[in-house]
Write a structure and sequence with these properties.
3 copies of one chain form a homotrimer. By secondary structure, the first copy, chain A, is α+β, with helices and mostly antiparallel strands. Chain A is built from 6 helices and 21 strands. Chains in contact: A-B, A-C, B-C.
């Protein structure tokens, strides 16, 4: 039942668990954050400059002018191109240098190549600006779809914030059950516990835990989204390279899917872009009775933000201690299966060892929840 | 008379003189600082968590939960055990993991070992919480006794503060005579100087300097503790691993012993826990005339604190310059005998080269004091 | 015409372009900054202490007491010598230790050598305190003369400030033409541009660019110093190890020479000590009509300070990005000839590869200016 391979005990020095996975799409900012001025955002420790061309299409370049190292994000948009603030060199969305002021001659192809700014593929989707993390690379796939965010039966809530921890620690925290009673106290889970069976399913690029026999979430949050209580279907998922998802199904009518896209700003700084899609019995009523939105915005949102603040604080404490000790120690049990599996997936992907032909695998264990 | 072996000139790069001696008891905090909540204190650059079990006995563990690196000092006490703030793992005074919430099975011995928090032997003595600096080690000796602090003939004053310097620099400063005229000006020594003979006695684990022919301390301090003047016996001592002591005997009745326990918080941060025990002619009078305490608290204390502040400032300047140069230079004379001997003792001890069978040795030199 | 050797494209990691040239005189501070108290100033990352002896002559020592590492700049002057604040050791202008308080015996020559503070040759000239950067070395040449600062036909303005960048980046910025339109906008150059020929002349220890066919400087600054407009002679120069110079000649009467002595405080911190010498038609009129001074102080000075602030800001942005990327990328064109040549000179000098017998060389290129 409880298989030893599902987690590992490890002791590291030098912060080995921070995994920088380049083969993937990440959210850099929300659509509204990118206006008519260039902005700087970090990915994997490197500053990128984001801007919109004259058609409003996003462009993402390494935020350093190839001429004299100045951040391009200090510049301005001229005719859809990005003009450096120091000597006025201009770059288009692909990073090509289109003008060097004062220079009186045409450039050779070799010079054009040297003068280009490294470029990241980008697109705008589901309300976010996404970039593909490998430099000057055209990916063979699109950014993931954020479940139910475009479905009119669902009310959708968005939030984002940046936390001082590795992407692995953030994913593990988002999908972890036991910590909720200690970190979130009465806000989330509390009260009597029962034995729950956990079915862990692994695919080559994702892992899912299903909790069977769980009672309806306790605490304020539980009472609000499922006032009647009853048995619940609950899934936690991690999908490479950066998606964590929590799904609750309560009876036929209530469905909550929280999807978080995590962005590794640096080894120990991670942004989370979260969407919560909620359908309740209210959603099916005609206006003005379909007040899922109202529940979501006025009740779930403040609760959710309080929970995020508590998680941010404990993750910060964890990160500070890792820096203090200049090493990390992990001693895991089956309760940590999902976090350990997510880290294994990130490492396998970073090492180019994902196998799409892998047979899905299933394990089970039991826990008090 | 003046022997060359007593001091050395040395130039280092990389801060070699910071000595981390693990084989010894150090004060972590005063008894009053440790209440019903766990607290964090540093020793040799590592954070430790201190707490009291249900009997009030102190426990000291490495301040990192073996599960997910969170500081245990963020947790709380439950039934005398220390509960981690993240997932609620509980540890007793010996560092044993006593509970993992949600886990539905018993642990194996191997698991128990992995899940234990590294432990430091600790005890409460003379008003302080002491810890033995070697991890998971049972020492063969007790913490040192702080002289006269429990003797009812003596009035006792305590103070502690943290200084930004190596333990060696702090010890040297505490036992150094020549600096007092420059750093402490009129507060301490001043006025005419005379030739004094210094007898240095060395044992395998300590060194002592006796000043023969010294006149009564000048300045405000001297006039207060020895209004009659006269010849004085004055000893300065360093005792491994962390005790500096200054003793003045003036005639039959006045006796002042200042004992400092130094704690190396990190290579260049040192706490000092100081006790001053004073017996004067007043001490032998019946109440309400035995006002040693009053002299100590109202006159000596503010003077002593001013002196400590001046020393802290000059030691900080010294430390900042060592960091600025990323190296240390030492050019010593016989006046630095005690500081050099203390450093030699610390280094010998750290290298396991103390020899308890060593014959005591004596040297002499003369100085203007 | 355009020769490829005049500049290079390079990519570094580890900040290779910060060149620490020890064989040269640098300004440490202005004469007024050094009064009766010792002061600390940095050169090449090392703190130096500056003081005046009893004749007012400057002395410059490494700012660390050889006894216990304390900054000598915390001390005070006693009889023309510098007394350390910790134990009172005294040093003269040559760094010799003249007294050790409390020590009752004379010192040997070997001891004198160990106890000396490393010394830098220094002098006071043209209103500045200069030091030769190689430790304990007597240079075979004097500090450079700052052009026209002692000529009564010229009005002279001085300013100094510290910028967060390498000396190379500061020199390049001071001598660069194309950035003025982008960084300084309307304050400096603007308006229509014309084709200008640039003649670059190189000697073994300096490089000069002459701009032929340039119209009178545009913008406020141009209109003030050359209200009549007309053709201008304009030279930009770099002279090893630290002098940048901009010279404008407008007709027979107007002559402006801005000379900057740069001081590398650290790899990425550079002070500039600037003098502007101006002779205009007004200078030749009798008092009170010879108001060059007034133009210089009331009009040019605020404009110049605004320009310096803009340069300081863009250089800071450049430096921050170099630190962010932990590397530097340079992709140059012929417009960067002077900056690239200055860096080559600094590197050749640092590697001991200057050849005084080198034949002067001339190159030409054209630019829009």
């Amino acid at each position: 039942m409880y298989e030893n391979e599902t987690f590992s005990n490890e002791s590291t020095s030098g912060y080995q668990t921070a995994v920088a996975l380049k083969d993937g799409w990440y959210v850099l900012c929300s659509s509204e954050e990118l206006g008519s001025q260039p902005i700087r955002r970090f990915l994997h420790g490197e500053p990128l400059v984001l801007f919109r061309d004259s058609h409003g299409q996003p462009g993402v370049l390494l935020d350093r002018c190839p001429h004299r190292n100045v951040p391009l994000s200090r510049g301005r948009i001229r005719g859809g191109d990005l003009e450096c603030a120091y000597h006025g060199w201009r770059f288009d969305k692909q990073g090509r240098c289109r003008e060097i002021p004062c220079l009186q001659r045409d450039s050779s192809d070799a010079e054009d190549k040297l003068r280009a700014a490294p470029c990241f593929q980008s697109c705008e989707k589901d309300g976010y600006i996404w970039a593909y993390a490998a430099i000057d690379t055209k990916p063979d796939h699109e950014p993931p779809k954020l479940a139910y965010t475009q479905d009119s039966d669902y009310s959708v809530l968005r939030t984002h914030r940046t936390m001082e921890c590795s992407i692995h620690a953030a994913v593990e925290n988002a999908l972890d059950v036991p910590h909720t009673r200690f970190v979130h106290g009465g806000l989330f889970r509390s009260g009597s516990r029962r034995m729950v069976e956990v079915i862990v399913r692994r695919w080559y690029d994702r892992v899912e835990a299903e909790y069977v026999g769980e009672s309806c979430p306790k605490g304020l949050l539980g009472r609000l989204i499922a006032p009647g209580g009853g048995v619940v279907r609950h899934f936690d998922r991690f999908i490479l390279p950066c998606i964590a998802q929590v799904e609750y199904i309560l009876g036929a009518s209530t469905h909550l899917v929280a999807t978080v896209a995590f962005t590794p700003r640096a080894d120990f700084r991670t942004s989370m872009f979260g969407t919560v899609a909620l359908r309740t019995r209210l959603s099916q009523l005609p206006w003005p009775l379909n007040q899922s939105n109202c529940v979501l915005g006025n009740v779930l949102k403040p609760l959710g933000l309080a929970i995020l603040n508590q998680d941010r604080d404990i993750l910060y404490a964890q990160r500070e201690n890792i820096h203090q000790f200049k090493s990390e120690e992990y001693c895991s049990t089956e309760l940590d299966t999902l976090g350990c599996a997510a880290l294994q997936l990130l490492r396998s992907a970073a090492n180019g060892k994902l196998n799409p032909d892998m047979e899905p695998r299933t394990q089970r264990f039991r826990m008090h929840a």
